[in-house]
């Protein structure tokens, strides 16, 4: 999967409890797979989602609630580095979801999350996007681990992580549920 782009610089910060937080400032490339392009969210796309301005290159059911939340975060703090990408179906050029790195990495561990709109599920797109993002994340300076957390009751999401080659390594308490942690091998 081809990707290119320059890595601008890396800042090291001390996190809570003396952990090291890595804040990465990057020029994010498009990540291209057989059927998808993962494109870094532009300020214009985020603003259009927040303003509820439909774009012709969005799938009919895009944006989903997750993308609305991400767009809101991006418009509230546009100067903060972020690792969020729109998932674009190459065949149609339609935006069909989102996937993102939760920057900054802490102690070398970088978390990611994802979502594909219902009309494009069960096509293997999410697994394909996860594989591309994980491969890219592993190239980032200071990143030693790439992981995701998932509600074990969300069986389709668990299957995505398993098919993408991540392994279950433990549990993480969350608000009202215990999440399972999956790490890229």
UniProtKB/TrEMBL annotation:
Keywords: Transferase. Residues 36-185 form the N-acetyltransferase domain. It holds the Pfam family Acetyltransf_3. The keyword Calcium does not apply. The keyword Transferase applies. One of its GO terms (molecular function) is acyltransferase activity, transferring groups other than amino-acyl groups. It comes from the Bacteria. PANTHER family: ACETYLTRANSFERASE, GNAT FAMILY, PUTATIVE (AFU_ORTHOLOGUE AFUA_3G00765)-RELATED-RELATED. This is Protein N-acetyltransferase, RimJ/RimL family. It comes from Micromonospora auratinigra.
């Amino acid at each position: 999967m081809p990707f290119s782009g320059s890595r601008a610089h890396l800042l090291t910060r001390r996190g809570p409890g003396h952990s090291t937080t890595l804040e990465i400032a990057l020029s994010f490339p498009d990540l291209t797979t057989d059927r998808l392009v993962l494109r870094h969210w532009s300020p214009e796309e985020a603003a259009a989602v927040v303003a509820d301005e439909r774009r012709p290159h969005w799938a009919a059911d895009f944006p989903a609630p997750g993308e609305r939340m991400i767009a809101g975060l991006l418009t509230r703090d546009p100067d903060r580095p972020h690792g969020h990408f729109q998932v674009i179906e190459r065949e149609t050029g339609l935006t069909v979801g989102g996937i993102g790195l939760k920057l900054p990495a802490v102690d070398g561990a970088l978390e990611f999350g994802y979502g594909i709109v219902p009309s494009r599920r069960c096509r293997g797109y999410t697994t394909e996007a996860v594989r591309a993002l994980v491969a890219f994340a592993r190239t980032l300076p200071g990143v030693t681990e790439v992981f995701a957390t998932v509600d074990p009751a969300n069986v389709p999401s668990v299957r995505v992580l398993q098919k993408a080659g991540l392994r279950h390594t433990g549990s993480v308490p969350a608000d009202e549920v215990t999440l399972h942690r999956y790490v890229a091998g």
